[in-house]
Amino acid sequence: MDFWPEFLASSCGREFVAGGFGGIAGIISGYPLDTLRIRQQSSNSGSALGILRRIVATEGPGALYRGMGAPLASVTFQNAMVFQIYAILSRAFDSSASTTDPPSYKGVALGGVGTGALQSIMLSPVELVKIRLQLQKSASSHTGPITVAKSILKTEGLRGLYRGFTITALRDAPCHGFYFWTYEYMREQLHPGCRKSSQERLTTMLIAGGLAGVASWVCCYPLDVVKTRLQAQSPSSPQKYNGIIDCLHKSVKQDGYGVLWRGLGTAVARAFVVNGAIFSAYENALRCLVNNGNVQTDHKLE
Questions:
Q1: Where does the protein end up (predicted)?
Q2: Which CATH number is correct for 3-290, 1.50.40.10, 3.40.1030.10, 2.40.10.10, 1.25.40.10?
């Protein structure tokens, strides 16, 4: 009966809940751009604007949100776990720091790497389902994420649900190291002293979060292209690739090295919007929980 108040009274509980709010904000703000990115990566379909016009004209605006149920249903828990794990690991990798001081940048980076590796266990099946839905040309074959997941389990087994797990882990571990390090570094540069005082402006959260998202995507984007192509495969379609190296080799051979950066502009635009929203929602929710509903952050848009 007293679990929830006790949970929110702990720092781990507050990190968990605030991370969930951040994840929801990120998904809702950036999902249409994510659909465009997936379509660009999976085939040579043209520019993001051209794909957007084609989707809206032939499939309707709702197609931009197709497959959102899978990440939205899991994103609260997933993102909550990411921020909670990161808070624990960043401290664990920097045990010399006092509890009142923020972890060092080394602790931040190593904590991010560990967080990315662990979260890929949860993320890989969700992204597989999401990608399969986003690449459908109509909503008729699968009506939602549960149908897709059941179909994968039936035809490919549990191993099929984790198709692309290795490449997901290889992408997410360094990506999260860059992600958290960039956020902590940029927020301190934009508002000196804020890492300890936690009193930065909303614009600082938005910009630092946006730049963190951009940095994390740029450092791992070729791996994300390979991941999308591997996870887009299913037993019902011809198997183009036999693994990470084979996919990388065949993709470059067929379309040139530019294919490894196809859709980067869309991904970067989405990353800035999404991660600005994630960190702003996370920081404000955390402050609200810490101060019992009274957010102390300066919200002046300067």
A1: Mitochondrion membrane
A2: 1.50.40.10
